[in-house]
C-alpha cells in the first residue's frame, strides 16, 4: 500500500494528463491533471472519470483518428503511437486540444496508457485518483511522462523515487542519484544553486514551491527546467516532498528571440518613422491645399504606426514577463482609466457603473487591457449621440468588466483569430495588436474576453476575471 500511495502522489504531481484505459475503452485510472481539466473537481475523481468511456470526452470529428491510433497500439502494430493532437471536452463544456501519445500496457491486451499535454486551453491542468490499478501500470505511467517525477524524504537525505526522464533531462546517472540524493544539485547552474537550496528548505518546512532554474549538462549548453514541488504531511508533519521538473529550454529560447526581434524592429521602425514625420513637418506651409491634406494623412498614419510599435512592446512584455497574478481593485482601475482618458474625447459621452467590492485576481498589467478597451471605444465614437458605457459587475465567482459603445462593428476577422475560429495568418493588419494585448492579459489572468453586438447597435466587449477577497 505504501508503494502504491507513493506512485499516486508522483503521478498527481505531474502536470501531464495521464490515463489507463482497458480493452473496452473504459477509464481505469486518471491522475490529478486529468480530473481538473475534464471534471473540474479534484476531490471527486473516482466518481467522475473512472469507469467512464474515454470516447465520451473525445470530439466527434477526432474520434476516428484517435481510434486508428488506439487500434495500432492495442493490436501490436506499433508499440507506441506517434504524437497526435485531438480535442477533448473540458469540465466547462469547451474543447481543449491535447498533444497525446499512446502506449500498449501488454502485447495484445487491448489496454493502453495515454499521456497528454494541453496545447490550446490556457487553463492549469488538474488531478484525479483511481479505482485500484495494478502498481505495475502506475509505474508504466511514470515512464511515459517526459517530466522528471521525483520523491525525497523531507530532509532530502534519501531519494524515494525518480523516473528515467531524469537521465535525459539532467544528463546524470540514476544509480548515482540513488546512492547520493544530493547529486542532482551538482547539475544545477552555480548561479542558481542557492535559490534551489532555499526552495528545498521551504518544501521541508511545509511550503509548496514553483521555480525555474538552469542545469548544466556535460558538454552541452545550459538547460532551463521548471520545477513544482509539494510537501506530503502525515500527522501534521512533513514526511516526504514530491514534485516534477519539466525541460522548458525551448520556451526560454523563444522568449529571448522574441525580445531581440522586438527591440530590433521597434528601434528601426521608430527611427524611420521619426525621419518621415520630420520631413513632413518641414513641408508644412510649402504645399498647396491638396498637399496639406496629404501631409495631414501622412502624419496621422505615422503616429498610428508609432502607437502600434508601443503596443507591440507592451504585448512582448506581457508574453515574456514572469509575474504572478495579484489582487487588483478593478473598480479603482476603471475609475482611474476613465478619469484619465475621458478629457481627450470631449465629443463622446462616457458613463460608468461600478459595483462595490470588485476585487479580482489578475495579472499586474491588467490595467493596460482595460485602458485599451476604453480608449478603443472612445476613438471610434461617432453618430448623432456618441456614447460609451463602462460597467463593473461582481458575480459570485467573477468580476465582469463591460465596455459598450454605439460604434461600427469590430472587424469580425480580428475577433475570430482571437477565439481560434480563423488562422493567425488572416490577421494581416496592425489594428489587431491592441485586441491581442487585451486577449493575452485576460488569458494570463485566468480570465477571458468575449465580443458581441450591443443593442440596438454597436459593440459589447466583456472581460471576466476570477473574483477574490481584498487582502
Task: Describe, in plain words, how this protein is organized in 3D.
Strands 2-1-5-4-3 form a five-stranded antiparallel beta sheet. It has helices at residues 2-13, 32-38, 45-48, 63-74, 135-144, 165-170, 174-179, 183-186, 193-204, 249-282, 289-320, 330-341, 366-379, 412-418, 433-444; strands spanning 17-21, 27-30, 84-89, 95-104, 112-118, 148-153, 159-162, 209-215, 223-234, 237-247, 326-329, 349-354, 359-362, 387-394, 398-405, 448-453, 459-466. The protein folds into four domains: 12-134, PAS domain (Beta-Lactamase); 148-247, PAS domain (Beta-Lactamase, 2-Layer Sandwich); 251-320; 326-466, Histidine kinase-like ATPase, C-terminal domain (Heat Shock Protein 90). The radius of gyration is 27 Å and the shape is globular. 39% of the residues lie in helices and 25% in strands. It has 471 residues and is an alpha+beta fold. It contains 15 helices and 17 strands. Helix 11 (289-320) packs parallel to helix 15 (433-444) and helix 12 packs parallel to helix 13 (366-379). A hairpin with a 5-residue loop joins strand 3 (84-89) and strand 4 (95-104). The model is unreliable at 121-135 and 424-430 (pLDDT under 50). It catalyses: ATP + protein L-histidine = ADP + protein N-phospho-L-histidine. Residues 264-469 form the Histidine kinase domain.
Amino acid at each position: 500500500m505504501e508503494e502504491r500511495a507513493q506512485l499516486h502522489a508522483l503521478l498527481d504531481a505531474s502536470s501531464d494528463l495521464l490515463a489507463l484505459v482497458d480493452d473496452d475503452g473504459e477509464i481505469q485510472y486518471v491522475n490529478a491533471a486529468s480530473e481538473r481539466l475534464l471534471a473540474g473537481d479534484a476531490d471527486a475523481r473516482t466518481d467522475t472519470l473512472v469507469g467512464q468511456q474515454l470516447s465520451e470526452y473525445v470530439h466527434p470529428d477526432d474520434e476516428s483518428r484517435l481510434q486508428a491510433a488506439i487500434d495500432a497500439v492495442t493490436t501490436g502494430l506499433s508499440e507506441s503511437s506517434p504524437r497526435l493532437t485531438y480535442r477533448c471536452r473540458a469540465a466547462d463544456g469547451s474543447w481543449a486540444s491535447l498533444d497525446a501519445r499512446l502506449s500498449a500496457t501488454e502485447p495484445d491486451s487491448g489496454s493502453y496508457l495515454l499521456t497528454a499535454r494541453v496545447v490550446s486551453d490556457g487553463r492549469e491542468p488538474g488531478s484525479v485518483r483511481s479505482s485500484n490499478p495494478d502498481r505495475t501500470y502506475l509505474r508504466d505511467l511514470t515512464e511515459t511522462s517526459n517530466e522528471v517525477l521525483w520523491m525525497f524524504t523531507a530532509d532530502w537525505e534519501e531519494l524515494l523515487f525518480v523516473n528515467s526522464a531524469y537521465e535525459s533531462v539532467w544528463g546524470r546517472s540514476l544509480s548515482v542519484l540513488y546512492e547520493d540524493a544530493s547529486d542532482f544539485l551538482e547539475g544545477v547552474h552555480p548561479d542558481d544553486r542557492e535559490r534551489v537550496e532555499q526552495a528545498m528548505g521551504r518544501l521541508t518546512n511545509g511550503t509548496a514551491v514553483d521555480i525555474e532554474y538552469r542545469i548544466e549538462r556535460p558538454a552541452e549548453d545550459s538547460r532551463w527546467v521548471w520545477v513544482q514541488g509539494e510537501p506530503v504531511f502525515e500527522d501534521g508533519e512533513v514526511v516526504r516532498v514530491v514534485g516534477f521538473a519539466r525541460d522548458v529550454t525551448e520556451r526560454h529560447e523563444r522568449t529571448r528571440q522574441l525580445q531581440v526581434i522586438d527591440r530590433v524592429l521597434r528601434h528601426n521602425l521608430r527611427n524611420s518613422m521619426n525621419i518621415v514625420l520630420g520631413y513632413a513637418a518641414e513641408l508644412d506651409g510649402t504645399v498647396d491645399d491638396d498637399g496639406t491634406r496629404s501631409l495631414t494623412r501622412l502624419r496621422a498614419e505615422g503616429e498610428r504606426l508609432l502607437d502600434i510599435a508601443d503596443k507591440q512592446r507592451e504585448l512582448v512584455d506581457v508574453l515574456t514577463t514572469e509575474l504572478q497574478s495579484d489582487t487588483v481593485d478593478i473598480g479603482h482601475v476603471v475609475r482611474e482609466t476613465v478619469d484619465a482618458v475621458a478629457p481627450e474625447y470631449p465629443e463622446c459621452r462616457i458613463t460608468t457603473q461600478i459595483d462595490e467590492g470588485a476585487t479580482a485576481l489578475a495579472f499586474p498589467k491588467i490595467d493596460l487591457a482595460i485602458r485599451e478597451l476604453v480608449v478603443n471605444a472612445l476613438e471610434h465614437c461617432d453618430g448623432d449621440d456618441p456614447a460609451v458605457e463602462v460597467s463593473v459587475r461582481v458575480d459570485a465567482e467573477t468580476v465582469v468588466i463591460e465596455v459598450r459603445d454605439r460604434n461600427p462593428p469590430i472587424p469580425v476577422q480580428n475577433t475570430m483569430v482571437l477565439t481560434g475560429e480563423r488562422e493567425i495568418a488572416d490577421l494581416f493588419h496592425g489594428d489587431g495588436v491592441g485586441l491581442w494585448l487585451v486577449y493575452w492579459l485576460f488569458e494570463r489572468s485566468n480570465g477571458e474576453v468575449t465580443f458581441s453586438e450591443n443593442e440596438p447597435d454597436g459593440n459589447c466587449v466583456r472581460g471576466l476575471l476570477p473574483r477574490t477577497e481584498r487582502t
